[in-house]
Design brief:
Blueprint lengths: L1 H51 L3 E8 L7 E4 L9 E5 L7 E3 L3 E6 L4 E7 L7 E3 L9 E7 L6 E7 L5 E7 L1
Antiparallel strand pairs: 1-2, 1-3, 1-7, 2-4, 3-5, 6-8, 8-9, 9-10
Length: 170
């Protein structure tokens, strides 16, 4: 009985030490995973543009569709990508993308702050052309929305359509 109590006490002490580190690791993994999702979806749009021999668009969501609308609304100036994004075969007309042209959607991005700069942030959609190039350039920063000064991910989009990923401080 005493041995069991000692084992439980040691287990409790080790758990108390490891728990704060585990939470930080989980936050860091979520940030990297969200950055990788955005990077993957832009690479997907780039490949689709080459495959279709037409422009493919990625835009920051303004709102998710309702049962009544069945279309996606994009931001007019795409500086905040925290709600999510949509990959589409058609350019947003007045900020609206019909569900029939949607190729991929990412939403429900919880506790993440995703911001864009450069010409990405000043257009309604990121356009990737049939040659794989990007018609806008700039960068994305992916951070935990509940804290500052922690590690984040910076994605830099080049005119070639390639994204470079690097660590940053939020």
């Amino acid at each position: 009985m005493i041995e069991l109590a000692v084992v439980l006490a040691i287990t409790g002490i080790l758990a108390a030490i490891a728990l704060p580190n585990l939470a930080g690791t989980m936050r860091s993994n979520r940030i990297r995973a969200t950055g990788a999702e955005l990077q993957g979806d832009i690479a997907f749009a780039r490949m689709e543009g080459a495959r279709r021999r037409a422009n493919v668009y990625v835009c920051a969501l303004n709102a998710l569709p309702t049962a009544a609308t069945s279309s996606y609304t994009c931001q007019s100036l795409a500086s905040d990508w925290s709600i999510g994004w949509v990959v589409s075969s058609t350019a947003p007309a007045s900020g609206v993308i019909p569900a029939s042209s949607v190729l991929r959607v990412r939403s429900n991005i919880i506790n993440m702050a995703i911001s864009a700069t450069g010409s990405i942030a000043t257009s309604s959609a990121l356009s990737l052309n049939q040659l794989g190039g990007a018609n806008q350039t700039g960068s994305f920063t992916v951070c935990n929305s509940n804290s500052s000064g922690e590690p984040g991910v910076a994605l830099s989009l080049q005119a070639s359509g390639l994204l470079d990923s690097s660590p940053t401080t939020c």
